[in-house]
């Protein structure tokens, strides 16, 4: 009975141990209660697996929200919310809503670089897609020389869906749209195709 109660209270490992002990005691004494002991053991196993699943999910979620260093040491996949000013990306995603991107060291060929970030207020109400896009675009500031060289700004703003999940970061990326860049816009080492 104790294993069923602890299993119902989501104390998985305790319920599992109590269920095993109860089954041993019932077997040695040849008494009744085998069904309750098995139920407690099952609840213990299910509770333990559920707790492990929640822990793994929470760990992965936290990991996918931690910002990357501005220039990574090796190519890696990252969630778009992890990008910071200085992140270099290759290739540019073609999907309308950007989720996962490949971040590369800026010394390697890349398609674009994050040059500015626009942080919406955490308490802000969803402004609508057009207004969100306009605010992020307003933070993009390319130099006349960059524009003359064919560099264009590409903006990634939160969508209504990502906003609902807490996304409040807009990014401005510099790209040529044709060919690979090397180096960084931020320190003046960028080489255009």
Question: Would you kindly provide a written description of the structure presented here, covering whatever features stand out?
Answer:
- By secondary structure, the protein is α+β, with helices and mostly antiparallel strands.
- The protein folds into 2 domains: 2-63; 76-175, no CATH class.
- 39% of the residues lie in helices and 16% in strands.
- The protein has 6 helices and 6 strands; from the N terminus they run H-H-H-E-E-E-E-H-H-E-H-E.
- The chain has a 6-stranded antiparallel β-sheet.
- Helix 1 runs parallel beside helix 3 and helix 2 packs antiparallel against helix 3 (34-63).
- The protein starts with a helix and ends in an 18-residue tail after the last strand.
- The model is unreliable at 53-64 (pLDDT under 50).
